[in-house]
Amino acid sequence: MAATRDTSVHVQSTWDERPTSGWRWHAFGGFTQRARAHEFGIPAAVLDRISDGSVPAVIDEAAERTTRRLAGGVRLGPPSAASSRHQAEFGVEVDSASTSARDQFAGTVYELIDNVRERIWNYDTPSLESHRHAVTTSAYAADTVRVSPDKVVTEDFAASSSNVSTSSRMCRFRMSSIFVGLVARSAS
Questions:
Q1: Which pLDDT does position 126 carry in this prediction?
Q2: The 107-113 sheet, strands edge to edge
Q3: pLDDT at position 121
Q4: Of 25, 64, 73, 185, which residue has the fewest beta carbons closer than 10 angstroms?
Q5: Which residues are CB-contacts of 171 (< 8 A; sequence separation ≥ 6)?
Q6: Strand-pair partners of 136
């Protein structure tokens, strides 16, 4: 007999302050987690590729898995006089996501294609555990300038950094990247 236990939680909030004078600010945050565990009472399974999908994809989903995401950020705008031609804004955001998998299916899978036995898959690594993690940090600044009553120019500067890692008993991998961009646009 097989059983699945699935537990999820999600919380998010945002705060926004736009006073007529003083700093404008916007802050947000959120957390999501899903934990899923499977108990297999049988050492073998039969899957039909046409109706159930590919065997590796189904077996990958059979692992006990915990997935989390934590995100937050703040955006600020300094006070500006009503007669000011400039409207500045800047901010930072952080996003962290992770997943871990363990206790994968161990046993035999008989693959059928249109109810005809085609392949036998043997899985024997139930204790293999893997972890994946990604953190992205972004910062930006923008300035909107009114150059005439009917013409606006906006300059945006953004920088983003990502760090990704994966590890298991068999391998480790780490990657980092940085992106910087500058955009200027006008509207009439």
A1: 60
A2: 44-48, 107-113, 116-123
A3: 87
A4: 185
A5: none
A6: 95, 162
Which residue, chain included where needed, has tokens 């923008």? 142
Summarised one tens digit per residue, pLDDT across range 50-90 is 888 788 888 777 788 999 999 999 999 988 766 778 888 99
3-class DSSP state of 58: helix
Contact partners, residue 65, CB within 8 Å, separation at least 6? 34, 35, 36, 99, 100, 101
DSSP class of 51: H
Whether the Cβ atoms of residue 89 and residue 142 lie closer than 8 Å to each other: yes
pLDDT at 9 > cutoff 90: yes
Give the bridge partners for 162, in sequence order.
136, 177
Q: What dihedral do alpha carbons 112, 39, 105, 115 form, nearest 10°?
A: 0
Q: Could you identify the residue written with the tokens 């962290």?
A: 96
pLDDT digits (tens, 9 = 90+) for 111-136: 988 888 889 988 876 667 888 899 99
Helix boundaries (H) for the chain: 49-52, 55-61
pLDDT value, residue 170:
61
- Whether 106 shows a pLDDT value over 90: the answer reads no
Contact 13, 30 (CB under 8 A): yes
Query: Residues 6 or more apart from 75 whose CB is under 8 A from it?
Result: 25, 26, 27, 89, 90, 91
Residue pair 149/98 in contact (Cβ under 8 Å)? The answer is: no
Nearest to 114 by CA among 56, 46, 50, 55: 50
